[in-house]
Structures are given as structure tokens and as C-alpha cells.
Input
Amino acid sequence: MLIPLILSGGSGTRLWPVSRSNLPKQFLSLAGDGTLFEQTVRRTRQLPEVGPPLVVASEDQRFLAAEQLRATGIERATIMLEPLARNTAPAIALGALQAAASDPHALLLVLPADHLIGDGAQFVDAVTRALPMAEAGWLVTFGIRPDRPETGFGYIRRGEPLPEAGFRVQQFVEKPSAAVAESYLADGGYDWNSGMFLFKAARFLEELGLHAPEMLAAVREAHASAKADLDFVRIDPTLFAQVPGDSIDYAVMERTSRAAVLPVSCGWSDIGSWGALWLAGERDSDGNLREGDTLTVDTHDSLLRSHDRHLIAAVGVRDLVVVTTPDATLVAHRDATQDVKKIVEQLKASGRSEHSLHRVVLRPWGSYDSLESAERFQVKRIVVKPGASLSLQKHHHRAEHWIVVSGTAEVTCDEKVFLLGENQSTYIPLGSVHRLRNPGKVPLELIEVQSGSYLGEDDIVRYDDVYGRA
Output
């Protein structure tokens, strides 16, 4: 059986301020229909004899992955939770062990969740042509035929043709200089390294054992600790912390004698920066990629992306990227967008939250929007999905006032359980054990006013939680 292994643990820092660690680019709608993760899942459903996907996700993003899988109609996916990032080789090894446990002959199609593919039919054709290669024991990587001298990607030099299809890999090449990238394009024998792979799960584990035996042994021990929890498979964090971190390229593909490349042209982009999104998007007659509320005068070859009904007006500019969110605005030259990650590093170093949290924060039960905050108070707009419930909890440092805007709220406050309708309110004293639930069939919206000496999200003591966070 062909099993898609979808790697969804990336952070996408170059697409800040839209992509942040609590909502990274793979779970965002950046181009095409749906999020990049949803598009990746949907593409796999067009493949022959394909099984339910395996997803490797981080602990913080587990509910995003589960919710978006459900949005694609997938009910039987396995979501494995990485307790911490260890790069692609250990993540793929976890997936290979999981797949081989249910089918010793499983074929594993490894797909990053944050790539854009414009031509789905070419992608399906490439995977179909690669299947005999994988069955013959090759570790296949999909090389993207370059259409420009790109310095942001690694390259693969093709070797001799193989009888099944594709070529033996002659050499993996690091990201080149502009002059070297020009020479690769002129040569015609190089492809971009896409980070997509196809091989037998057992063959990959065999090669990993040959070239990185300590990694394989540590991943096996961590995988043996796996426990089911709701929709997820949890890995022991202490054991997984012992796994050496490395990429699949360094750990296996550059060392094995069985690496093969299948060139493909499928409208691929890794959407690795705002510049890459500008290249992949549909631009207007002035070369501008525009989204949201934007106005332009004498503006060319720019990306303008407005959020939350915020008007962007650009006059007399060229080659700019302007991106707004409710709490941050990015202005960059289009050729410098690879350096946006340096802004994220500064935010982290200064202890600010804009690198990790949006103003609107998604939760498995719904979302909250921090409307206003100052010393000793904070105002939030909370939306709870129909039938959903927050945890039973208390706070040591804050009290809360709840005002229902729409829908119906079931409130637990210490020993009392009661309903609130529109325009009704209640007070949750400091230290009270409380819960908020939406018993209705429409979303519950309320305004929460917090007051107290400390208002951080870590001032929560959970006693019971349907999402396993207590």
C-alpha cells in the first residue's frame, strides 16, 4: 500500500507576520484552494491504491492538523506528535516505523505540508512513474526542473538513466551562488531538490541503519513508547530528546548508493518567502500580487497583502512587499524577503510575543482575539464552537467578567451551573473553579474582561479537559 507521510512541523519564519509558530504557513491559505496542508492532503487522494495519511506534527499544532484533516474529509489518519523538533530524518523514521508495523511492504510517499503544486495531474503522474523505482529498492527523490537560476534551493545532479524511470543521483549540491545557479540552468542536468521522496518504509529503515545506526536505534526506542491519546499518537519526550537530529539528505540520501531522482515539472514552489509567493501567485497587469483591501498608483512588481479590513495604499513604488496583520506590518524589498527571519529572531531575543502568537489565537474549542490590554486589565473576544467546551479551570491572579454577545453560554462557577443568553453577563471571582461551554447549535460569542495582577495565559490550573490538556 502507498502511504502518504505528511511532515507538518515547520515554522515558516520567512512568511512573518502572517506565519507564526502557533499558526505556521502550512496551516494558512496563502495560494490556491484551502491551506497548504489541506491541498497536500487532497493531492494524495488522487494517487493509486493510496491508504490513509500519516501526519507528523508538533505538539502545539496537533489540533490544527486534526481540524484540517477533518476539513478534507479524512477520518482515519494517524497523527504522530513530535515532542520536539529533530529535523526530517527522525520524523521520517517515526513514520516509516509506524507504516511498517501495519504493512511490512508499505511504500512511503514523504511530502512536506507547506509546498504549493500548481499542476496536480503532473504530480500524480510523477508519483505513478516513480512507484516501480521504489518497488525496485530505489530511494526516490523528486527533482523539480528549474526554470530560473535560483539560489535559495539545493540542487541534484543527474547521473545515468535507470531502467525503471528517472536517473541515479550523481551528486547533491548545496544552495549555489547566482553565477553557479546560472551555470546549472545552462547545463540542463540539474534539478531543484524538492524534499519529496518515495521509497519502501523497510528500505529507508535499512539505509538509516547502515548510515545513522545511533539515530535509528534511538527512534526505535522512542517509537516503542508510543501511546494513543484521542486522535493522536504521543511519543515519550525524554526518549525522543535522545534522538540525534539531522536531515534526510545528510543522514541517508547523500550517503546511500541507491538514491534516484525523477525530474518533474508540476508548478512546484516551497513558498519559502514572500518573494516566492509573489512568483507563484497571479499578478495583475502591473506585476502586483494583491490580496485584501489595497489601492495602487504607479506601483509595480510588488506584493500587497492586507488583513482585517486594513487598507494598504501604495504610490510610486516598485519591488516591495507590504503585509499587514492586526498587530504587525512588514515592509521589505522583494529581493530581501529571505531575511524576514532576522526580524523574527529579534522579536524572540527581546521577549516579544509577535513571533509566536497572532492577536487572534486558535484553540480546539474556537478562538480568542485580544482586543485591548494594559496594566492590570485585558479585553478579549471569545468564540466557542457549537457543542465545544473550555477546560474546567481556575486562575490565581485574575478575575473575569463575561458578557454574551450572541448564542448561549453554559457557565460553571464553583458549585453553580447556569445559562446566559445575549446581553447577559456574569462575574468569575479570582480563584473560582469555572468552565465555559456552548450547548447550542450556533457559535457562542462573548466579551471577556480580565482584571488582576497577572494576565498571562500560563495562569491556568486545569482540572478537567476534553482535549487532554489537564
Observations:
- The chain has a mean pLDDT of 94.
- Residues 101 and 201 are 10 Å apart (CA to CA).
- The radius of gyration is 24 Å.
